[in-house]
Amino acid sequence: SQQGEEDPQALSIQEGENATMNCSYKTSINNLQWYRQNSGRGLVHLILIRSNEREKHSGRLRVTLDTSKKSSSLLITASRAADTASYFCATDDRGSTLGRLYFGRGTQLTVWP
Amino acid sequence: GAGVSQSPSNKVTEKGKDVELRCDPISGHTALYWYRQSLGQGLEFLIYFQGNSAPDKSGLPSDRFSAERTGGSVSTLTIQRTQQEDSAVYLCASSSTYLMGHPRELFFGEGSRLTVL
Q1: Contacts with B96 from chain A: Cβ below 8 Å
Q2: Cα–Cα distance, B91 to A2 (Å, whole number)
Q3: What angle (nearest 5°) sits at the alpha carbon of residue B93, between those of residues B87 and B94?
Q4: Residue B78: C-alpha distances to residues B11, B81, B104 (Å)
Q5: Closest Cα to residue A37, out of A85, A74, A107?
Q6: For residues B40 and B56, what is the distance between their CA atoms, to the nearest angstrom?
Q7: CA A98 to CA B50: how far, in whole Å?
Q8: Does A39 touch chain B (CB under 8 A)?
């Protein structure tokens, strides 16, 4: 399947440190998105990167995309306790006419005060 | 409404009973998705609507699962003869019209947590 896979499954850091999460996927994509999910809540869109982009920034977020390796990374700089959440990557499928987005299992980030 | 609304937020049912989960998408959003999230797991795609039609229903796990959308708005996910393995959070999301190759952000509801005893 096209499902993305995040790595690591869990990450625990101190406030102020940087957090890096990785995502790998299987087929060619048009774009890749990162979402965040607080415990017991729905997912919230964070950032989107197109297949012809290599890096994108939004506030404390930095996303990279390497289509040759079919991988992406999400960096959260100067983390805060409020960043504690699960983070998911989502990809489409360039070879498909359908509108499905494929999500991975997520990385559970815990930021300790 | 301002966001995607799902009801009920929590549902506890007995094995063998039917349940209906409702999703009210953001006004004007033509695309609607249902995903299932089991404890500690990722999101499992169930079905996708564009308007009232479902071009991709390949993720429905069995014929006990069905979904419909009327008026290009509200969608209902029905699970018949529920089983314990159906226990999960059912998430609904909506987005603007899907154009192949064009990115669109999904807006998620808070989910309906289903517990089958």
Answers
A1: none
A2: 20
A3: 155
A4: 13, 10, 27
A5: A85
A6: 25
A7: 10
A8: no
Chain-centroid distance, C-alpha A14: 20
Query: What is the Cα–Cα distance from A63 to A70, expressed in whole angstroms?
Result: 14
pLDDT tens column, A27-75: 888 889 999 999 989 999 999 999 999 999 999 999 999 999 999 999 9
Asked if B77 and B95 touch (Cβ cutoff 8 Å), the reply is no
Here the tokens at position B18 are 């039917």
**Can you give the pLDDT at residue A98?**
65
Whether residue B34 contacts residue B75, with contact meaning beta carbons closer than 8 Å, is answered with: yes
Interface residue A98 vs chain B (CB under 8 A): yes
As a whole number of Å, the CA-based R_g of chain B is 14
A100 with B93: Cβ contact below 8 A: no
As a whole number of angstroms, the distance between CA A54 and CA A62 comes to 11
What DSSP state is assigned to residue A17? S
Q: Do A103 and B91 touch (CB under 8 A)?
A: no
State the distance between the two ends of chain B, measured CA to CA, in whole angstroms. Answer: 33
Contacts of B53 (CB under 8 A, 6+ apart): none
- Tens-digit pLDDT profile for residues A81-109: 999 999 999 998 777 666 678 898 899 99
